[in-house]
Amino acid sequence: MLSPASILHVFTPSCPICATALTNAVVFILLDKEVKTLSYEAYIPMAEKTVQALITEARQKWDDLIHVAIVHKIGDCPVGETSVVIAVSSAHRKQGLEAVHWLIDELKVKVPIWKKEVYVHGGPDGVDGGEVWKANNAMP
Amino acid sequence: MLSPASILHVFTPSCPICATALTNAVVFILLDKEVKTLSYEAYIPMAEKTVQALITEARQKWDDLIHVAIVHKIGDCPVGETSVVIAVSSAHRKQGLEAVHWLIDELKVKVPIWKKEVYVHGGPDGVDGGEVWKANNAMP
Fold first, then answer.
1. Shortest CA gap A49–chain B (Å)
2. CA nearest to B34, candidates B84, B85, B80
3. What is the pLDDT at residue A86?
4. Which helix (H) or strand (E) holds B4?
5. pLDDT digit string, tens, across residues A36-66
6. pLDDT of A70 over the 80 cut
7. Taking phi first (over 0 means left), then psi (-120 to 50 degrees means alpha), and beta for anything else, what does residue B65 get?
8. CA–CA gap between residue B85 and residue B101 (Å, rounded)
9. Cβ distance of A31 and B22 shorter than 8 Å
10. Which residues in chain B have Cβ-Cβ distances shorter than 8 Å to A13?
11. Residues on chain A touching B20 (C-beta within 8 angstroms)
């Protein structure tokens, strides 16, 4: 299970690099809901490349970012479990907050990840088998 | 020690209320830096009242907020330890991100909390004893 705590640890004093440099950390956590299970699939090499490009672009847009971590779950993700964690630390809070907002919006649109929604009582619009594949940015 | 994890637990599936309602959680964590120790003092009754008023105002501004948690450390806060955690969950990520940004900015300006900076090698501008009290919004 993807745990926000596993990401947060790099933003705490137990990480010697951070202890003197870090002031603000913004963590965006996306939990799944509404359906029984989501299952994510990705074109991994392109997804990793795209995420790296987004981080590079974010560092150009906001020049005081310190750490940037993005983790996306692939495979089954039951309702209520975390599917995405984006964590950014920055010298000034405004930049960190703006960067996290931009990163989740861009990730949803640009990173090649798709999700299959498995419904408890069948899917919408008469979908057979109670499953439907959607673009990752379909919601929310 | 104020732990982000202690706040995050209300945003996880172990909280039955959240499990079906929650999609997005935004957590802002402010860690202290630059000085040996910060010490916070607050006019507690007014601070609690002001924080509650900010939460009420945030819920009016962004009507799909689900959970809002704000915790501020009072007393000594060594470098690298968390002094503030603001956590918001919302049905749509845009509102949650905007609300967290607004809440930390408003908290810094409006909540009656002051901080004493204790310097390793004495304070700036020849401050005796290496300590100086500042308004909470002095930085960063």
1. 24
2. B80
3. 84
4. helix B4-8
5. 677 889 999 999 999 999 999 999 999 988 8
6. yes
7. beta
8. 12
9. yes
10. 31, 79-81
11. 33, 79-80
Residue of A nearest to B27 (CA): A27
Answer yes or no: are the C-beta atoms of B80 and B91 closer than 8 Å.
Answer: no
CA B87 to CA B68: how far, in whole Å? 6
In chain A, count of helices (H) and strands (E)?
Answer: 4, 7
Residue of B7, B10, B33 to mutate for A, most A C-beta atoms under 10 A: B33
**Domains in chain B and their CATH numbers?**
5-135 (3.90.1170.40)
Q: Is the peptide bond before B140 cis (omega within 30 degrees of 0)?
A: yes
Tokens of A10: 């790099």
Q: How many inter-chain contacts (A to B, CB under 8 Å) are there?
A: 115
